[in-house]
Amino acid sequence: MAKNRVEAGTGKTTTGTVLASAKSGDPACIGQIPGVCAIDADSNNQAPIYLDGVFSVSVKGVNSGGNSAVAEGDILYYNSGHTPKIDKDNTGVRWGYARGTVGSGSTATINAQVGY
C-alpha cells in the first residue's frame, strides 16, 4: 500500500489501466479518473488507485503559460508526459488540490489532496 498516504480519506479504490512504470504511491489516472496507485502496476499495466485522501507527492511550479508558483488550495493537474506528473498545467487531467506551496519553476514534495 502507498506509504506516502498522509490522510486516508474514504480508502475507496478502483482498478484500471495506468502507466506501465506506475509504482505504489505514484499519482495516476485511469482515463480521466484521478488517483494514487495503491500498489505497483502489474504486467498488464493494471493497478488499483486510491480515489481520495492526501498524499505526499512531487509537484512542479509551472502552468501552461510558464513558471507559476503553487499556493495552498490551487488546483493541480496530472500529465503523463511531464516530470513530475503533477503541476498547475491545465492541459492535463484535473487531479486534486495543493495542500502546500511550491516556488515558481521549482519542484518540491508537498501534501496534495487527490479528487475534486
Please give a structural write-up.
By secondary structure, the chain is mainly beta. The protein folds into two domains: 5-52, no CATH class; 54-114, no CATH class. The chain is built from no helices and twelve strands. It has strands at 5-7, 13-17, 27-30, 33-37, 46-50, 53-60, 62-63, 66-67, 75-78, 86-87, 93-98, 107-114. The strands form three sheets. The protein has a five-stranded mixed beta barrel with strand order 6-10-9-11-12. A hairpin with a 2-residue loop joins β7 and β8. It is globular and about 35 Å long. The two termini are 22 Å apart. The mean pLDDT is 95.
Q: What's the quick description here?
A:
With 116 residues, the protein is mainly beta. The chain has strands at residues 5-7, 13-17, 27-30, 33-37, 46-50, 53-60, 62-63, 66-67, 75-78, 86-87, 93-98, 107-114.
Percent strand equals over 45%
For the sheet with most strands, the description reads: 5 strands, mixed, barrel
Extract low-pLDDT stretches: none
Number of domains: 2
Q: Classify the helix fraction into a percent range.
A: under 10%
Rg to the nearest angstrom?
13 Å
Shape, per Cα inertia axes: globular
